[in-house]
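Can't paste images in this forum, so I'm doing it all in text. The chain is below; anyone willing to post the predicted structure tokens underneath?
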Amino acid sequence: MGKTLKPGVTIKGTKDGLFFFLDDSRPFSDVLADLKEKLENSHAAHIWDGPDLNVIIKLGKRQITKAEEIAVRELFSVRKNLIIQEFESDDIPYLLGGEQDLVIKSGTVRSGQVLIHKGNLLFLGDVNPGGTIQCTGSIYVLGALRGLAHAGCEGDTNAIIVASVLRPTQLRIADVISRPPDKWDESEIGMRFAYMIDNQIVVERIHHLGQLKPELEWKEGRRHF
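Text version of the structure:
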């Protein structure tokens, strides 16, 4: 008989709210898939649709990047009464994958406007067609990206672009420019991220983010612009 895997996510209630324990021995993509299933499970409606509950995410010994944190927060967005208070690690500091300089800005980037930022940017809002975000680091848009996004504009090929709704007129990472398809498949919903490999910009569903390694050995399911 095969070894039974521990659940990717374990939930425990406390008098102050809920603890979500993310198994640090499983691939992060598996943990995200398990978390998504649990949060969308209608059988738990008596919890999910109840009063507001504070949530603490327990990471174990795992270190996560800012993009992975955003992926978790995006999954929780379907349950408005579950309010993430913090992420906690057991024995090591909670690190953000080298992105401690992440700055949060909010608003709307309208047509003709250009938002320029040095470092990594978390933008809470929409980027409209004709609008531009340009960063020396990575770009995270919690909203619709329908304009132009240029990450790693000073040559950082490891920068990524993440958006809740990824429908850009153009993506740029470092000096690589990529145009989207003439018509978007509107049936494709959910957060996505773009990164560069083999001098091309590739777009993936957000749950693949945990598989993204420096060596980028995995090759299935890539969507090239």
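Helices lie at 28-39, 45-48, 66-76. The CA atoms of residues 176 and 200 lie 7 Å apart.
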